[in-house]
Amino acid sequence: MFTLQIEHDVRDFRMWKRAFDGDPLDRAGSGVRSYRISRPIGEENHVMVELDFETQEAAVFFLARLENDVWKSGAAAQALLNEPSTRIIETLAVETLEAP
Q1: Residue 14 to residues 19, 24, 38: CA-CA distances in angstroms?
Q2: CATH code of domain 2-90
Q3: Where are the alpha helices (DSSP H) in the chain?
Q4: Would the pTM count as exceeding 0.90?
Q5: pLDDT for 3-52, tens place per residue?
Q6: Taking the chain, what is the end-to-end CA distance rounded to the nearest angstrom?
Q7: I need a surface site. Which of 9, 49, 81, 92 has the fewest CB within 10 A?
Q8: Positive/negative CA dihedral, 14, 17, 22, 24
């Protein structure tokens, strides 16, 4: 699995979330299998998103579309305070541990 990690400051979390929920790139149709939205405790307007893909190519293509089609215009651009920090990582192992 490959994960596109995105981190950035936003003007207002609710504004950003509305733009995210609008799903302008059709996440499911673009190969996103799951996603997580997080933020550091005490930093309400700092957002971290992880989008999971089956292939590296799908993650790279989706990032390019975000950079060119979403972050430069529309509601998403208005919600961002700075250039998002991004990277694509490969998951090598996942284990679930049970308490003793």
Answers
A1: 9, 17, 13
A2: 3.30.70.100
A3: 13-21, 56-65, 74-79
A4: no
A5: 999 999 998 999 889 889 999 899 999 999 999 999 999 999 999 999 99
A6: 29
A7: 92
A8: positive
